[in-house]
Amino acid sequence: MPHDHAGHDHAHHHGPPADGNFSRAFGWGIALNLLFVAGEAAGGLWANSSALLSDAGHNLSDVLSLALAWGAALLARRRAAERFTYGYKGATIQAALLNAALLYLALGFILWETIDHLRHPAPINGPVVMGLAGLGILINGFTAWLFRSGQKGDVNVRGAYLHMLTDMLVSVGVVVGGALVYFTGWLWLDPLIGFAILAIIGYSSWGLLRETVQLGLQAAPAGIEVAAVRQFLLARPGVTALHDLHIWPLSTQDTALTVHLVRPGGQNGNQFLRELQHDLQHEFNIRHCTVQLEDEFPAMGAHGCCDEPDKQ
């Protein structure tokens, strides 16, 4: 039989947006890395270095990623509309998914170029390689520093931070490799360093790719344990049972929750809901919650209340 919502207490809370405006960081990061990509690509062609070209290709994908993440962050700040009742927050998730696809497309291109340099080794200009890679250490390190304060609360910002930090470490490797090739004359070291760069990038990006796919599938965000939230709700005063608990991301920063709580003869319902909303935000950073209070558990099959999630 259908579940009747009438006569029950409801609460819907929309908390403030996540703190931090990284527009200036995105702007600086994009501008600096565009200049660096141009210089690194030109130097890689002049020095005939696959390591520099592969690093330039990845830095270009980082520029595109920063631009997409920045655009999505700006779009997410727009007010809700008649059709987009949650606003445009989901743009950050879509941008993260597109960034992951662009990243691995760039990796495929870099792999092709590196294999070609391995098959056809040629002399490289060691000082140019070391000089440009050293500049990359400074630029990528500075860009990573711009995002350091927000990398724990937003997968988009964390992606920018990790990409820049990884690029800084990769540039260190390019400097070392350029020195080895320059002093030993072992040309095969250059494409070998290119393969190492690919491995580092692929490994460091896998976690972000997995998390963005999960966000796209509306899985509970990685930092939230659904079992812990369930136990937290069941421990609230007067709550005897719950059903239809759903936790999903509205964006890479904002999380939503809906749940039906069975609280027979509950007193002070409004105060209970206000305290619950405050505690959910404080304990789990869940800013958007819709809670329905019920006097008894619904009949079997009512409103999908017996649809239990699979234990994954």
From TrEMBL:
Membrane association type: Multi-pass membrane protein
Molecular-function annotations in GO: zinc ion transmembrane transporter activity
Annotated GO CC locations: plasma membrane
Subcellular location(s) of the protein: Membrane
Keyword annotations from UniProtKB, A to Z: Ion transport, Membrane, Transmembrane, Transmembrane helix, Transport, Zinc, Zinc transport
Keyword Membrane: yes
Domain Cation efflux protein transmembrane, first and last residues per copy: 30-214
Domain Cation efflux protein cytoplasmic: 222-295
TM region positions: 25-47, 88-112, 124-147, 168-186, 192-209
Any Pfam family the entry gives: Cation_efflux
The keyword Transferase belongs to this UniProt entry's keyword annotation: no
Major localization class: membrane
Recorded family membership: Belongs to the cation diffusion facilitator (CDF) transporter (TC 2.A.4) family. SLC30A subfamily.
Name of the protein described by the UniProt record: Cation transporter
Organism: Hymenobacter perfusus
